[in-house]
Description:
It is a single chain. Helix content is 60%, strand content 5%. It is mostly helical. It has two domains: 3-250, no CATH class; 351-468, no CATH class. The longest helix has 38 residues, at 313-350.
Amino acid sequence: xxxxxxxxxxxxxxxxxxxxxxxxxxxxxxxxxxxxxxxxxxxxxxxxxxxxxxxxxxxxxxxxxxxxxxxxxxxxxxxxxxxxxxxxxxxxxxxxxxxxxxxxxxxxxxxxxxxxxxxxxxxxxxxxxxxxxxxxxxxxxxxxxxxxxxxxxxxxxxxxxxxxxxxxxxxxxxxxxxxxxxxxxxxxxxxxxxxxxxxxxxxxxxxxxxxxxxxxxxxxxxxxxxxxxxxxxxxxxxxxxxxxxxxxxxxxxxxxxxxxxxxxxxxxxxxxxxxxxxxxxxxxxxxxxxxxxxxxxxxxxxxxxxxxxxxxxxxxxxxxxxxxxxxxxxxxxxxxxxxxxxxxxxxxxxxxxxxxxxxxxxxxxxxxxxxxxxxxxxxxxxxxxxxxxxxxxxxxxxxxxxxxxxxxxxxxxxxxxxxxxxxxxxxxxxxxxxxxxxxxxxxxxxxxxxxxxxxxxxxxxxxxxxxxxxxxxxxxxxx
Length: 479
């Protein structure tokens, strides 16, 4: 089995185990009487009689009706409620899997495992997955839309735009508040191709937004057909449920103390630290969406008159994602600083003259000829693409400038020494024959003074190796 296949197999195994763990914890002992929560009795009556009140979109009710019909269970309230509770557990497990996948695509698989663990085994999710309520349905649609947004961002296309619209429709079909994800996708989703002019960019944005809206409407109508057929009654219920209960409230600005106890403190602290420390890099569109949705949910929960703890569930999942990303961003930042500090100390204690940093990735270097690295002595930055670029050879170019040491990035240079790089055979590079002699000579004649293995983030933590160049008077070098 190849390394890629093994990686995908292990990822699929983890996601299946995570889904099973969250689902079975949600259905464990969920047969308590339906009258423990009066909302469940009302929802059971909607499934049994088909008379809908439209206080919420129909994802939960319609899916519960379909699942109940497939299972062939009795039409007693208790049986319908238990079917709905099983569906809530399914939605909860699907949402947690989406959280793990999202963080995996944003960071790494270990980060996805941590995020899935933080999200999946929380007391609030465990409680809500035991009740026939819309909260886990909203959470599933919310997380599914975030995953679809990230997938679209990785490689924008018309197909992925359509799937993003469909995922936003699922979120809006869980609860009406899910429609904000469509508005966010309108604003933040990248276009399928990079336009070359302002006019073409406007046209690309218009086409994407039109397709996104069309896909949203099609899937929303499919999931909420009864709501559209009874639109006047649905509008009355929406006005009563949303506007009067939440928007026309007198308790705006009630503060954060109502919902902070329901957030994971470790995830919350790491997210806030990540927001403020220098390790914060430029955010991608998905991270902007995460932070924007978190701010929106905080403002909404702080301002509504009617507050119930279960409303915090989407914010709790968002904080779990941001907290995991913050933990790994902080750890990678500290690891990168440790590598830089180690190299800086080594150079400042051993180098009396100029040095040369040789790297085979042109885009990483600010100047192909010379440059300066803060905190170190003056250092030449060299990018040897072809040996013939420097007249006779790269080695001559180093010697002419009196370089006494060379720092190379092993993550890129070792590919030319017939070593494995990224799990791929190394003879496939077309310029291998031209570059290999330089690194072979460096390895053979220049002793290694210091070496650091690659870190988990290859572009930020490449492997480094410091070579000393023998003096010309001692022996002829680099020829």
